[in-house]
Amino acid sequence: LTSLGDLVANLVLDQVLFDNGRAKAQRAFAAADVEMAAVTLSLDTNARVYQALNLYLQAQKGGEIAHQSDVVLAEMKKFQWIMNERVKGGVSDMSDLNILNQKLAEIEAERSRGGQNQRSALAELQAMAARPLDTIEGQIEIEIIGSEVVPLSVLEAQAAERRDIASAKIDRSNELPGLVARASGGTSDPSLEVGVKSDRFFDFGTSARLRAGKAAQTVANRQVEQAKETAHHRMQAYLQDLTSAEQQLSEARALRKQAWNNFTLFRRQYEADQRQVMDVVGVYESYARQQRRLLELKYQIAQFKLQIARDLGLLADGAKI
User: Fold this and answer.
1) Which has the minimum average pLDDT: 71-85, 105-119, 215-229?
2) Tens digits of residue pLDDT in 15-62
3) Which of 102-111, 214-223, 262-271, 304-313 has the lowest mean pLDDT?
4) How far apart are CA 195 and CA 60, in angstroms?
5) CA distance 195 to 35
6) Residue 255 to residue 250: CA distance in whole angstroms
7) Burial class of residue 302 in the structure, from the number of CB atoms within 10 Å of its CB (0-12 exposed, 13-18 middle, 19+ buried)
8) pTM for the complete prediction?
9) What's the CA gap between 266 and 100, in Å, rounded?
10) Cα dist. 59→42, 115, 120 in Å?
11) For residue 131, what are the contacts with CB-CB under 8 A and spacing of at least 6?
12) Would you give the end-to-end CA distance of the chain in angstroms?
């Protein structure tokens, strides 16, 4: 161990003086890559929350349909009893009773479908949850603040643009020569030299590769513009559908009120022997249809708001996740 001979220990230091922006582009690429991962996580989380809330809406809708059907069924059974007594007394025809029985069967089937939809949606929602959802209740209220919020699809395209541009700059710096300084010192003679460093040799394809890098930046910019246009069109479609549904809801409320007034009038006229039972049944059916229409529109509006909130990333706070 004491006769190893001459041992030369040198310290060599390479310092890049000019790298055509490679280090800066690499830092930009890393930052854009982190942002891309954050946007992807936000997209996935908002999509999952949307799926859960959509299932909850389906469960709520199924429960309300079943409840409405119970109310309508109870009222129709009163008419069925009256018609049955009239048939027994020979006052009315059996065909009217058969029509009423068919209507009752349809209402019962609708109530059964509503209850089944509610149970199925709750079962799927429970499968997604980490804790029991038996005590979960209430309506979903979503506030849309869309004008100042950038859609997640646009944020994703912007992050991809920055990453692609940084990658193109890295490729460009690899094509061009850089300037480096090398200093060494130790037991041997110290030295300092400056030279040119290039990872590739210039060839006939260098110019084409440089042009390809510029084209990649142009493509990335166009993809962002396309994402903005697509997101804008989708958002406008959602907003138009939402506005239309809200107008229809207002009209349906007026029609339901008118249908109830007609039913009240016909019922009084029937009690005064001025109307037949089936006349009152027909008017009540019209009221029940308007009531069901209101329910459908209410959940349709909630669905549109839910879709807007998902696209804008309002269902899950990206900063927190």
Assistant:
1) 215-229
2) 554 556 667 778 888 888 888 888 888 889 999 999 999 999 999 999
3) 214-223
4) 73
5) 37
6) 9
7) buried
8) 0.76
9) 18
10) 26, 9, 8
11) none
12) 59
The Cα 288–Cα 262 span in angstroms is 12
d(Cα 286, Cα 262) in Å, to the nearest integer? Answer: 9
Q: Which two tokens stand for residue 313?
A: 């990333």
Q: How would you write the chain as a 3-class SS string?
A: CCCCCCCCCEEEEEEEEECCCHHHHHHHHHHHHHHHHHHHHHHHHHHHHHHHHHHHHHHHHHHHHHHHHHHHHHHHHHHHHHHHHHHHCCCCCHHHHHHHHHHHHHHHHHHHHHHHHHHHHHHHHHHHCCCCCCCCCCCCCCCCCHHHCCCHHHHHHHHHHHHHHHHHHHHHHHHCCEEEEEEEEECCCCEEEEEEECCCCCCCCHHHHHHHHHHHHHHHHHHHHHHHHHHHHHHHHHHHHHHHHHHHHHHHHHHHHHHHHHHHHHHHHHHCCCCCHHHHHHHHHHHHHHHHHHHHHHHHHHHHHHHHHHHHCCCCCCCCC
- Sequence-distant (≥ 6) Cβ neighbours of residue 247 within 8 angstroms: none
Closest CA to 32 of 163, 142, 144, 128: 163
Q: Which residue is associated with the tokens 């022997």?
A: 273
Q: How far is CA 219 from CA 138, 215, 286, in A?
A: 48, 6, 57
Q: Starting at the edge strand that comes first in sequence, how are the strands of the sheet with 10-18 ordered?
A: 10-18, 178-186, 191-197
Q: What is the pLDDT of residues 119-162, one digit of tens each?
A: 999 889 888 887 777 777 777 777 776 557 888 888 888 888 88
